[in-house]
Amino acid sequence: MQSLTNRNQQVERKPMTFAERLYLPSIFKGMAITFSHLFKKTPTIRYPEQKRSFSAVFRGLHILNRDEEGRERCTACGLCAVACPAEAITMEAAERQPGEEHLYREEKYAAKYEVNMLRCIFCGLCEEACPKDAVYLSQTFAPSNYARQGFIYGKEELLIPNPVTQPEEYAKAKGAVGKDIK
Ligand code: SF4
Ligand code: SF4
Questions:
Q1: In sequence order, what are the beta bridge partners of 115?
Q2: How confident is the model over 3-30, as pLDDT tens digits?
Q3: pTM, whole model, 2 decimals?
Q4: What residue ranges do the domains of the chain occupy?
Q5: What kind of architecture, by CATH, is found in domain 62-180?
Q6: Residues lining ligand 2, Cβ inside 6 A
Q7: Burial readout 99-128 (b: 16 or more C-beta within 10 A, e: otherwise)
Q8: N or C end of the chain, less CB within 10 A?
């Protein structure tokens, strides 16, 4: 038969020797290979007890950032949503009312801000597009979930803890990626 690659080989079907018929040499050879792996460094880790350190450019879950006074930075300009190639971000803008200056940094804020993690490809374009340093991708995974609805993250999940009232939680949430973000 004509071959496309010229890599086909004729297989010789010689009768098995006595040792081959015993199968013992092959079994010992296989056991030796298995046993040799006991002394090699294992490439796997025991997650979640052990965790690998992330690359400096790892992009995980989104965080909605606050300023140093704890006010929400997002001004609901929509640039992140426009930049998103997966159309994963939706938001609703609202106007800041008198007396809410301690809550929102700008006159307009996102009353609703949602990221659909099933659509998101973690490209980071939303982070690049934001003029207010209000959104960035952290070094946290999206936890697994049984329901699709569980992957739509709202402000409750995305908003970073308040640095004034919850400094420890804020530092933890900000993590290594956010350390340079003001
Ligand atoms: S990381 Fe990329 S895909 Fe995900 S929300 Fe931001 S812009 Fe969209
Ligand atoms: S996160 Fe940034 S880009 Fe997106 S709406 Fe808020 S201020 Fe605008």
A1: 89, 153
A2: 777 788 888 888 988 888 888 889 999 9
A3: 0.74
A4: 62-180
A5: 2-Layer Sandwich (3.30)
A6: 74-80, 91, 110, 129-130, 132, 134-135
A7: eeeeebbeeebbeebbbbbeebebeeebbe
A8: N
